[in-house]
Amino acid sequence: MQIPKGATVAVLDGQKLSLFQNGGDDNNPSLNALPTPKVDTDNKSGGQGHASSSANPDDSTQDEDGFVAGVASLLNAQAVSGKLTKLVVIAAPKALGELRKHYHAKLQEALVGEISKDLTGQTSGDIEKAIAAA
User: Is residue 125 situated within a structural domain?
Assistant: First the structure.
């Protein structure tokens, strides 16, 4: 996958977010770590305030979904404000599915690619290799 110079790369799962910016060119990404913003986890799309049961997700799932919804809110706000114009999302499969439910139209316009793979905690070099292989 090619990613434009200056694109933001968001790497996440249900508990962790890492942000990078591509300082390289389209064919040779060079990821530079960006400060990780605080994620608001109050939006538990699994049904906040409901008891866990077979019909409702367990607390762990609600926490993960809340974190992912918080990441989506953060990315949406940056896209709407114009601060985020090119985005690549690399997320654990479950987190990516939840994240997609919350994409704003402006974020969808900024999206240049998605990779469904859990790379949280990996080095920028490992992430660059995964992007090149996608």
Answer: yes
> d(Cα 77, Cα 58) in Å, to the nearest integer?
28
Q: What whole-number distance in Å separates Cα of residue 62 and Cα of residue 30?
A: 34
Q: Count of H helices and E strands in the chain? A: 4, 5
Contacts with 110 (C-beta within 8 Å, 6 or more apart), sequence order: 79, 84, 85, 86, 87
Inform me whether the pLDDT recorded for 115 exceeds 90.
Answer: yes
pLDDT digits (tens, 9 = 90+) for 22-49: 999 888 899 999 998 898 877 544 444 4
Residue with tokens 């919804």: 69
Residue 30: CATH number of its domain: 3.30.420
**Rounded distance between C-alpha atoms, residue 127 and residue 134, angstroms:** 11
DSSP H helices in the chain? 59-81, 93-100, 105-110, 124-133
